[in-house]
Design brief:
The complex is a heterodimer of chains A (about 450) and B (about 50). Chain A has about 450 residues and is an alpha/beta fold. Chain A has helices at about 25-35, 50-65, 80, 125-135, 155-175, 190-200, 210-220, 230-245, 265-270, 295-315, 335-340, 385-390, 400, 405-410, 415-420, 430-450, and strands at about 1-5, 10-15, 20-25, 90-95, 100, 120, 145-150, 175-185, 200-205, 250-255, 275-280, 320-325, 350, 355-360, 375. In chain B, about 10% of the residues lie in helices and about 10% in strands. The chains are: A alpha/beta (about 450), B little secondary structure (about 50).
Chain lengths: ~450, ~50
Amino acid sequence: MIHTYKFQDINVVLDVGSGAVHVCSDAAAALLRACEGQPQADARPPEDAFSAAEFASAREEIDALTRAGLLDAPETGEDVLLPEDRGAVIKALCLHVAHDCNMRCAYCFADAGGYAGARALLPLETGKRAIDFLLGRSGARRNLEIDFFGGEPLMNFEVVKALVQYGREREKDYGKNIRFTLTTNGLLLDDEKAAFINEHMDNVILSLDGRPEVNDRCRRTVTGEGTYAHVAEKLLRFAKAREAAGKLYYVRGTYTKYNKDFAGDVRHLADLGFRNISVEPAVSDKPEPWALAEGDLPELFAEYDRLADFMREREQAGQPISFFHFNVDLEQGPCAYKRVAGCGAGTEYVAVTPEGDIYPCHQFAGEPAYRIGNVLTAGGFENKWFDAFNKAHVFSKEACRGCWAKYYCSGGCHANALRMEGDLLRPHRLSCAIERKRLECAIGLVCARALTCP
Amino acid sequence: MQHIKTISKGTLKQTDGKGCGECQTSCQSACKTSCTIANQECEQTRIKRPR
């Protein structure tokens, strides 16, 4: 399978089976487009667009790359890429240290931090049992992850600090390396917390939507006040401190139907001085006024193109930024297993709530049908969903099998599939369309850079 | 070549059947909603890369 598309003025060709990426002439692109979905030998080029000699020479090159296994390469089978017996180890924990929040964001999937339940902070002892649970079930995996999540984790920061200390002590007993991360809206961030976070957190996600009016339309305090003025400067100062210390952060925004011109928000964040930026689309299974829909796709696609243009402008001006979804490493990226196995939710990644309840991931927290145990109860973990999540990989999803992007998204978000499409094996169509566009831009940017600096 | 320039030969065939499981869980990186794998770093590469 191949995927041929135009990015800026470049014809990009992705060979799905090998992962090879080429750029090509218009004549070769026309030939390759004619090939998509059928054996190359049967392809008929569009008539009259190019001379017979052009097509003949393009055909020769296509045939040579095909023989070299770099075009139309056969895809490796499920039996090779997904060995059955990988064991049910858990290596990543989303630790909900606060089911409460000091913001009331319009699009919050977590019911403004409460997750449709009682507002609560994670007790220290429950957090310790969650860490024990992770360490005890991590098998032979050495590198483990704990993300302090919420709600707003800084509302329970003393527990965060104590749990980092506890994790550091206990990881030695098990011969493990825990990587801590934290996601925060920044309202309670101060110098003391920043210093601790910078010392101990491998990555930090800072929530900010972009331009002041965009941010404040959805991200408000409990009393309904806009939050931009409260957090933007603090988050930037913090981000600069991370950069100076050589540590990773992302400022992460959500874009909605209200700001389909979200490239303007990325530009705003870049102009403020943030270098690592992510913005994500807001989707919902309910008819929310902010939720994006399939009818918005043409505008969103055009906006991602504008964002890619902006990325190139910044690069050429010597001020590059990193946009999370436009990052792709074609040479040393993830292995093939990682690309097909899915996100790990419900198998190697779980979420633990302040009550100690275990869910397949943070998106399922508070949904009784998906509660799979409790860390406070001895033997209190019975993952009845393991098989369902374990088998929800790209080979078992009909929509993925024929999709050129499947080795780059690994089948999409399980929670979105269930909520939006009603089936773990049916990836959310809108999210898929956006993901394909982002990947086209990401791979296109690699090509554009390569052509500029051969 | 006159018509086609190869930018990357791809790595999918080199990694068939492997997978140490030591790399970061994608949802723990920056998204928490969308699943993007291709921007994740291989742990074996991370270990070898000078810091």
